[in-house]
Amino acid sequence: MIETKALSPSLGVEVTGVEDLLDPTVIARLTEALKWRGVLLIRGLHLDDAAQLAFSRRLGEVVALGGNEIFTVTLDPSKNPAAEYLKGTFHWHIDGTTDPVPVKATMLTARHVAMTGGGTQFASLYAAYDNLPEQDRKRYDELRVVHSLGASQRLVYPDPSPEQLAQWEQFPGQETSLVWRRRDGRRSFVIGATADHIVGMDPAESRALLDELVEWCGQERFRYTHEWQVGDLVIWDNTGMLHRALPYDPSSERSLQRTTMRGDEAFR
């Protein structure tokens, strides 16, 4: 029998009693919980790649990033050529903010964990918006923000080389509303490491506002910190949750297997 327990007041639920992940009734219940709680945790599943892919496909179309449906999250460059890029994930972010339609959900299975650090934090952008004073919501509703890869990479490399700048500029940025008016009636922010500037605003004022918003959204009452155990499965609503990895030693064996499900709602 499936049972659920809240992970924090604002977001997240731990699911127990799952016997068949592919059962349509189970899938329906998990999908509903993911929509309203944003983060799902099932401990001790120990899924292999084939089982994770099969489960992911029940939740949506799996995106093949770089031609691979399974992506290994590790700072070991011998296991992941993009390991250096992953250092940017230590900052709050949403995946796909430079795409017209961001990925809907992300799933991680823990194969190895760090001895120290290496947890993953989530913050609910729905709860953060809903708890703003009314005058602030009205102000933010009218603003637009430009997202870019360069903005997130400058947090890791504040003094980039000409070669790095040229590489980042190969990826076009995107302008979105600061507040995403969702088709289900909810609203959430589109912010994080990729948020470069507010359109039409003084650069210093823009930076201060974006930093202030990230600080507001990341406060403890809207946040859940997951400390990984081997075999854990975590799924989250990428469109409504900020997330970030907590720093850990690059020589750590920490290794997570990631699948992502294609989104179906464009930014507005």
How would you characterize this protein structure?
This protein has helices at 24-37, 49-59, 125-130, 134-141, 149-154, 162-168, 203-217, and strands at residues 3-6, 13-16, 39-42, 71-73, 105-112, 120-124, 144-147, 174-177, 179-181, 187-189, 195-198, 223-226, 233-237, 241-245, 255-261. It has 268 residues and is an alpha+beta fold. It has a 7-stranded mixed β-sheet, with helices on one face. It has 7 helices and 15 strands. It starts with a strand and ends in a 7-residue tail after the last strand. The mean pLDDT is 94. The protein has a single domain (3-261), classed as Clavaminate synthase-like (Double-stranded beta-helix). Strand 2 (13-16), helix 1 (24-37) and strand 3 form a beta-alpha-beta unit. The radius of gyration is 18 Å and the shape is globular. 25% of the residues lie in helices and 25% in strands.
Principal-axis shape equals: globular
Instruction: Flag low-confidence runs.
Output: none
Q: Any idea of the CATH topology?
A: Double-stranded beta-helix
Main sheet overview: 7 strands, mixed
Question: What would the average pLDDT be, to the nearest integer?
Answer: 94
The H-and-E topology, N to C, reads as EEHEHEEEHHEHHEEEEHEEEE
Strand content bin: 25-35%
The count of strands amounts to 15
Q: What's the CATH H-level homologous superfamily?
A: Clavaminate synthase-like
Cα Rg: 18 Å
- The CATH architecture name reads 4-Layer Sandwich
CATH class: Alpha Beta
Number of domains: 1
Please count the helical segments.
7
Q: Which structural class should the secondary elements be placed in?
A: alpha+beta
GO molecular function, one term: dioxygenase activity
Keywords: Dioxygenase, Iron, Metal-binding, Oxidoreductase
Protein name: TauD/TfdA family dioxygenase
Domain TauD/TfdA-like: 4-260
